[in-house]
TrEMBL record:
Protein's name according to its UniProt entry: Uncharacterized protein
Segments traversing the membrane: 12-33, 45-64, 76-97, 117-136, 143-162, 168-190
Keywords from the named record: Membrane, Transmembrane, Transmembrane helix
Organism: bioreactor metagenome
Amino acid sequence: MEHRQDMVKSWADPSALGNICIGLLLLAQWGFFTGITGPATGIVLLPWLLTAIPVIFVIVFIQFRLGDFVGGTVNGLLGIVLMGQGAVKGIIALLFILYGKDMPPTYGADAGLTDALPLLCAFVVLLAAGFLSGLGQSKIQAICVWVAAVGFLLMALASLGINPVLGLVGGCCMLVIGLWLFYAGIALLLNGAAGKSLLPLGKPFGKK
């Protein structure tokens, strides 16, 4: 049992890789989030999603094994659930094109109603995750996670048909967390390799 615990502790922290992967995936969707590109973006993103999601599975597994339940939860939610359903939607759209079929006329509305409640749940989860991140890691990270939470809320409201502009604003919020994750991943990588702080990540709440 002791040998097993030592083996788990010897695993490297995959947080840098997780942040970089999810940050890249979010930034790759900048055109879709800002409304510049259309539904076909899901098909174009498939190579990125299908290659990154298995990596994120491994990252989340290791994070939970190391006891990083906050990082594992956020990466699992953003990297596997959110990106995974995007990949499945891209595959569905591709299959319709390959077989020369049109999407059902109610597909968009049905998908919006289906997505709304999970997006609201993601909003709640990220509110809590941001609070925990601020206490234990960085208040800057907490703020960025909360921005992402607001993004999920706005996209949920847009999915309910309230106002499509809310979805665009929510997408821009997702780009904020994408930029932060990419920066944080690079910072963790450089700081860890150098053994000192080369790129600042901020301090927890209550610390100056």
